[in-house]
Design brief:
The complex is a heterodimer of chains A (about 325) and B (about 290). Chain A is mainly α and about 325 residues long. Chain A contains 12 helices and 2 strands; from the N terminus they run H-H-H-H-H-E-E-H-H-H-H-H-H-H. Chain A is globular, with a radius of gyration of 19 Å. Chain B has a two-stranded antiparallel sheet. The chains are: A mainly alpha (about 325), B mainly alpha (about 290).
Amino acid sequence: MTRVGWPALAGLAALAALPWTPWMSNYWMLLAFDALLFGAIAMSLDLLMGYTGLVSFGHAAFYGLGAYATAVLLEREVLSVWACLGFALLVVGLYAAVVAYFATSRRGIYFALLTLIFAEVVYTFFRYTQTFGGSDGIQGLPDAELLPGLPIATPQAKYYLVLGYLAFAYVVCRLIVTSHFGKVLVAIRENEDRARFLGYSVQRYKMGACMISALLTGLGGAIYPMRAAYATPDLMLWTESGEFIISVMIGGLGTLVGPIIGGVFFTILRDKVSSYVDWYFIVIGAVLVVIVLFMPRGLFGFRRLRLRPWRATA
Amino acid sequence: MDYLVAVLLPQLLHGLVFGAALGLLALGLTVIFGLLGVMNFAHGELYMLGAYAGLVVIGLTGSFWLALIAAPLLVGALGAVTEVATLRPLYRREPLYGLILTFGLALVFREGARQLWGGDMRRILPPVTGSTPILGMTYPNYRLFLLAVSVTLLVAIWLFFTRTRAGILVRAAVQDAEMLDGLGVNVPRLFTFTFAGSAALAAVAGLLLAPVFTVYPQMGVEMILLAFIVVILGGMGSLGGSVVAAFVIGIAQSLLTLWMNPQRVAIAIFGLMILVLILRPRGLFGREGVLE
């Protein structure tokens, strides 16, 4: 408990009380769902970006695969939440193992590009496979059931589902970054060669971080169709991965809580700005540019990626 | 024999034409990568803006030829401003920041174009019409023209990099910018001009391909992945490599569509890329150890 921390518990309690506040309409409940989901996924990505120093441009594939795993089961009237989550973990785990194995054998920009291209393969596959609905995806799914006869139907129930997921993901991430394993990840970020000289199997640690981050993201994806009742290939588009990265950058690398807030901020910004003007992507892009230029620690971050001279290629 | 002339040969020429234009796009990308260590995600948007700038100039003057001169100048100027305002402050930072920054720029450019010109597909009419019989088949004149212009430009760029002082300085900066800086060359200015040049090349590619494809705000998103693939295959930072790789990818793609449906082709090319990245990350002609 001490490793998770009382502020986190207080935050969780506050979030749990949110549906009881008078101004939470159904619209706000569902927006809160999206915001927390995005936040939790940004946090999972932070494990990789902020702590291990690996930027993944392919997290949308983990997210989308999780969503399709749920969608395929719900479509066939397998309504158990636990079955969906288990199936998603299996599917995402198998794919992530392949990606993690190959991508972690390369550093920096090559890691980013490998994850990007792997994700494009998955996207292209789902986009053009009619079994999975092609570009329309799988639509009109029934509500999932927590227990037989106990459907997750109301916005409040869905909100608590995502809150449970967020709490679980946060505990996992927090335990990891405070463990020896997490310290080694930071060591790899700071100086990969030195970590290797100290005898750590760098690739194995990176693979571990990748797998955990991917599985948590996949779980988030698995929850999405339980709220939206669909899964489409657009969830896997590489620009979606970019939006996860934006959330992490807004929140601050290597802080866990920062990316949650970043994801919430990003989701609400996107929703609110888009209801006033239809050029919200300009706002989002500009926010990202400003943050990279002037606030490399993010709005809520406390540290930055290590500095390097401009020639990284010596 | 009929199959050869009627099917294989046109497809091969298509690949050659597309590869040449892709080469223009990839060349700029690889030079910027070599200089700044940044994979420019906004490159596809510069390509898209080239087509739109052309559309505007054609709308004003009715001349494709004027557009072919004005579009690269306009987009090149935009590139220079962008470089000075956003990339220059990042020189001494982790290259991954540049990657993320250009992703943000791409969003701004793409959405800006959609706001200015709308999201619907537009066409630019080819300035050269008709077709020519060659090798027993007839081939559209515009594509031959496209091939000629692209190849001329590629040769001109090659001469620039091998015969002119400015070109040699750029290559030296790709090798070791810090050393060049120490020798008294104004490296930041060199970077800005190179970025502008790379933007102008992307614009030329965008305008040249516009009559073949269509013009819409998302057109850069699909091209940029292909351009990334070309740059990886050729070896990041390798100029000759990216041109060769552009032809390889262009021809491979157009030949493969004869036997596979397009999505299988895409997956096949992605698969090829993953293999290259794993087995030979420096690509066909790249130097060993570049940002590995």
